[in-house]
Design a protein that fits this description.
284 residues
């Protein structure tokens, strides 16, 4: 057995074969498909025409703008809330920590479709939220019928679901921060707020970068929430790149152009991740 150098390759062969069939082949096939046009098996090679088409596609530009608006607003809000919650739930003075941690994390394990449907019902014109507002003497808000409020609805829904997920990651990171740092800062007269910005955030920098990258990838691929909650409306105000890819491929069956959009998303994710690493100063 020791003299047969091919033995290790036999053990990893099943994983390599499965990866090649279900990952590598689809990636290469979709890349080739992005240079083709047509339906079904009637495909013709068109070179870079699909990519040139993106440059003048107004709907794609709208979807790109909507996606980046959600990214720029929602991700910082979610990260900051998750950091604050993690710090509060890590306090030695807090009782019933397990209960609160589970409560805030529960939204992260709910079904994407289920929670989107619940939010769509709550935010209807005569939904629970507007009924509560009118009972307080305030005006009802057209959550799903106004472009601004439709985006706000998506941001609220996504924040509700993902804050707890990031909070748990930050809680794990907080366990590795030496308590002596906080004790020394307290002796020097640093307030809790000062400790948060001078100790907690710097010590959690790699963890924050990790969650920001994951959140960026998730937002650029956003599909479930706008598809169920707003249907991309009103007037394409919440149409995301993920939704436009779905519509192009599975409603209009233009799989070549849909593959092009998919690879543009890949490039955007790579660029955004590179920028985030550069901004944080991490070279590895």
């Amino acid at each position: 057995m020791k003299s047969k150098t091919y033995i290790p390759y036999l053990f990893i062969a099943p994983a390599v074969i499965l990866f090649s069939i279900f990952m590598l082949y689809p990636i290469i096939s979709s890349l080739i498909l992005s240079f083709q046009t047509g339906q079904g098996v009637n495909l013709t090679f068109v070179g870079l025409d699909n990519y040139k088409r993106l440059l003048s596609d107004e709907i794609f530009h709208t979807a790109l703008k909507n996606t980046f608006i959600l990214l720029i607003i929602q991700v910082p809000i979610m990260v900051l809330l998750a950091l604050v919650l993690a710090s509060l739930l890590n306090s030695a003075l807090l009782r019933m920590k397990g209960f609160f941690r589970v409560t805030f994390f529960l939204p992260a394990v709910t079904s994407l479709v289920a929670y989107s449907i619940i939010f769509s019902i709550m935010l209807m014109n005569d939904g629970v939220v507007n009924q509560l507002l009118t009972s307080l003497g305030l005006k009802a808000i057209p959550w799903l019928n106004d472009p601004f409020w439709a985006k706000a609805s998506l941001i609220i829904a996504m924040t509700w679901r993902w804050v707890g997920y990031n909070m748990v990651i930050y809680l794990a990171g907080l366990q590795n921060i030496p308590e002596e740092l906080y004790e020394a800062a307290s002796m020097d007269g640093a307030s809790r707020v000062r400790q948060f910005f001078s100790i907690t955030i710097p010590q959690l920098k790699p963890v924050i970068l990790f969650t920001v990258v994951l959140s960026t990838i998730g937002t650029l691929q956003l599909f479930d929430e706008p598809f169920v909650l707003t249907k991309g409306g009103p007037s394409d105000a919440t149409l995301t790149i993920g939704m436009y890819l779905y519509q192009t491929g599975f409603r209009f069956f233009d799989f070549g152009y849909a593959s092009t959009i998919a690879y543009v998303i890949v490039v955007l994710i790579a660029i955004m991740t590179f920028i985030q690493f550069k901004i944080t100063g991490d070279q590895e």
